[in-house]
Fold this sequence. Notes:
Blueprint lengths: L2 H23 L11 H12 L3 H4 L18 E3 L5 E3 L2 H9 L20 H13 L10
Antiparallel strand pairs: 1-2
Amino acid sequence: MMMLPLRRARRAALLLPVVALTLAACGSDGDGPALSAEAEAGRNTMRSSGCASCHGADGQGGVGPSFQGLYGTEVELADGTTVTADDEYLRESIREPGAKIVEGYRVPMPANDLSDAEIDEIIAYIRAIGPETDEDGS
């Protein structure tokens, strides 16, 4: 009769890593929205390529502007103009860091050698952690 609890314990011990891997594959670590595979790759690229040292491990900002809630919003630039934080703006800002400096951030972003695919992934991540929209998409 002692075999039944032992079997259940072993089964539970074997399932624990499977559950953990499944949750990790879903793209959410419990600290934000569930991420698509592309957005998760973008978060990983952002962290591994040095972006996170200024923009924060989860895009929360720091020496550099925050990515959280950024996508689709108006961004004030150091020259007094504004721009919408869309794919085009983000791509330009990553490729040419000095092209449009965000107001209040004087530390220049270093050049990088990210591929087009890596930039697309980072933009997907920024889009994923952008502002929440209503059910009608606004």
